[in-house]
Amino acid sequence: MMDENMFGNTMWAGHWLWMLVIAIVVVIPVWRLCQRAGYPGWLGVLILIPMVNLALLYFIAFADWPANKTGAQNE
User: Fold this and answer.
1) Radius of gyration from C-alpha coordinates of the chain
2) Which of 7, 22, 37, 54 pairs with 63 at a CA distance of 20 to 30 A?
3) pLDDT digits over 8-20, tens only?
4) Cα 57 → chain centroid
5) Cβ-based neighbours of 69, under 8 Å, separated by 6 or more
6) Which residues cross the membrane (predicted)?
7) For the chain, what are the domain ranges?
8) According to DSSP H, which parts of 1-64 are helical?
9) Quick one: which of 2, 5, 68 has its CA closest to 39?
């Protein structure tokens, strides 16, 4: 019975599209934040992993930023 639902495939495709948009909207700012702090930008991808995202947030908030130590320009 559930396979005969006319909205089943459409909602599935829309779900993944929505998740991709949210991932892009979240990862790009965190990527830039990591770069400005002096850490590799790819750490921003970790924001997509549950519980790791909280650890990353606390790490960025309370760690000594390498960019501050080297006197790098924050662009």
Assistant:
1) 18
2) 22
3) 555 666 788 888 8
4) 11
5) 38
6) 12-31, 43-63
7) 30-65
8) 8-37, 52-62
9) 68
DSSP type of residue 72: -
CA 65-73-48 angle, to 5 degrees, is 50
Is the entire prediction scored with pTM above 0.85? Answer: no
Q: For residues 34 and 65, what is the distance between their CA atoms, to the nearest angstrom?
A: 9
pLDDT at 65: 86
How far, CA to CA in Å, does 55 sit from each of 37, 38, 52, 58, 60? Answer: 16, 17, 5, 5, 9
